[in-house]
Amino acid sequence: MTKYTPTKRGAALLQDPLLNKGTSFSAAERDALGLRGLLPPRVMTQHEQQRRVLESVRHEPTDLGKYLDLLSVLDRNEALYYQVIINNLVEMMPIIYTPTVGLACQRWGEIFRRSRGLYLTSEDRGHVISVMRNWPYTDIRMIVVTDGERILGLGDLGANGMGIPVGKLSLYTACAGIHPAQCMPVTLDVGTNNDSLLDNPNYIGRAVPRLRGPAYAELVDEFVSAVQELYPHACLQFEDFGNSNAFRFLQKYRDDICMFNDDIQGTAGVVLAGLYSASRMTGVKLTDMRFLFLGAGEAGIGIGDLIVEALKAEGVSNAAAHRQCWFMDSKGLVVQDRSDLVDHKVRFAHEHLPVADLLTAVEILKPHALIGVSGRASAFSQPIVAAMAQHNARPIILALSNPTSQSECTAEEAYAWSDGRAIFASGSPFAPVTHSGRVHVPGQGNNAYIFPGVGLGVVATEATRVTNEMFFVAAKTLAACVTDEDMALGRIYPDLSRIREVSTSIAIAVADVVFARRLTKMPRPSDLPGYINSQMYHPDYVDYLAT
Questions:
Q1: Using DSSP, how many helices (H) and how many strands (E) does the chain show?
Q2: Global pTM exceeds 0.85
Q3: What gap in Å lies between CA 427 and CA 180, rounded to an integer?
Q4: CB 226 within 8 A of CB 207
Q5: Catalytic-residue membership of 97
Q6: Which residues partner with 350 through β-bridges?
Q7: Catalytic annotation on 168?
């Protein structure tokens, strides 16, 4: 793991959040590093600092206020920020990521305090690499990039989408120990078609319509090429691009560089893991299940593709595996006779009569699992959930759209409308629900269970590619981490408090694939788990006089 020691002194050291320890600098460090008098005289432990941060955050009356309070800690002392997050992950994850990050992105211009991340614009074409050289760190291993066109279920937020790469990379560090100095958030500001942003004087991006066509593709190509030149060991994660661009870029780059799309592949991994767990709870094998998706965009198709791979691994033919996955989009059931299907939907277009509405599709197809990736709030109505419960002793209801306001149904609705029999998970968190005297703990199908561990396994081994097999083994590993106690509560994912442990297990499984498939020039360590653990960042303060 890379260590960072101070090359700065005095006030400059206090202004560097990667090195600053604030009131935890010892008396000797203050004398040696020119800090005497620049800090309050009392030396505090990191534990005492954490207590003060928690008191401050919990005093904030709104989630957005808590988000800003934590962001201010990140801006001045990264080690303290990550200690607070790691030690209070269940409480803090909904604040630093979904659902609060959605509101933060919507109001990014109003809440902007200090720039985090790198902004590249269409005006930088021809000079992208020189702009990227302005980034202060050179050993970059994980990059999250968005163009802000499809932020969560909120649509086109343009440059305001920077909150997503910043949040994702915070989770890479908190959940999997990738060093914050090796993380780089990037927003491609190519304009926005959101009229409310174009008319907003506080909008921080270029107030112009979205760049399209060859000029847009050239900018992305130039950015990808610059990443390969400047950061040859970096993994590039595409995030919250529009559907057509997301599929196109994944297809274009996946076989040539180390990259993946979390909306397509990460979401697929976490949902497949949940289905494995649900299979244990229902007693119905994955190979015997039918799946009905509401939403046929990048998340839905990505999940379908990985389910197909899982079924094929169990001996199901390719055609039969596809036939187990059915999709509803805004025009109805995806069937062969439709002439309006884009390429990524065609492989899941089955021979069937047209079906216009979801309730009819449920009644005809009788799916075991209903998977919502539509961004449509309340799309799973009471009749739909009741129909699922009529056809299944334990209906699987996955309302995965983010943020909470976009969820296809709430946990309380799923349990109430199924007489407490639903196996429910959502994209954003819901509180436990008591129904007929029994406490149900909803699972959260959060990509943070998958992408940090995959990323750690990839960057620790300097892998040259990210493959679907890695997400398949990540899903199997995640499902194996679900305990009998979890399932007794109705939870199909482990408790979030265990996510660092889960990420480590996933990283080891992914690294095993990297070495088995010879996707790295690095020799396989004799102790792979020990090696992975040695690569993880732990945000404990360092005695700078001892280094």
A1: 25, 14
A2: yes
A3: 25
A4: no
A5: yes
A6: 335
A7: yes
CB of 503 closer than 8 Å to CB of 175: yes
- Residues forming beta bridges with residue 261, ordered by sequence position: 238
CATH number, span 10-92:
1.20.1370.30
pLDDT digit string, tens, across residues 120-178: 999 999 999 999 999 999 999 999 999 999 998 899 999 999 999 999 999 999 999 99
Contacts of 45 (CB under 8 A, 6+ apart): 24
What pLDDT score does 546 carry?
Answer: 85
Quote the CA–CA distance of 461 and 519 in Å, as a whole number: 9
Query: In degrees, to the nearest 5, what angle opens at C-alpha 376 toward C-alphas 375 and 382?
Result: 135
Asked if 454 and 503 touch (Cβ cutoff 8 Å), the reply is: no
Q: How many whole angstroms separate alpha carbon 342 and alpha carbon 340?
A: 7
Q: What is the pLDDT of residues 229-243, one digit of tens each?
A: 999 999 999 999 999
Q: Is 62 exposed, middle or buried (0-12, 13-18, 19+ CB in 10 A)?
A: exposed
d(CA 415, CA 283): 19
Residues in the chain, overall count: 547
**Domain ranges (residues) in the chain:** 10-92
Angle, alpha carbons 140-477-281 (nearest 5°):
140
SS3 513: helix
Bridge partner list, 146: 187
Catalytic, out of 67, 82, 97, 449:
97
Catalytic choice (21, 66, 168, 345): 168
In Å, how far from its chain's centre is CA 231? 22
pLDDT score for 404: 87
What's residue 487's pLDDT? 94
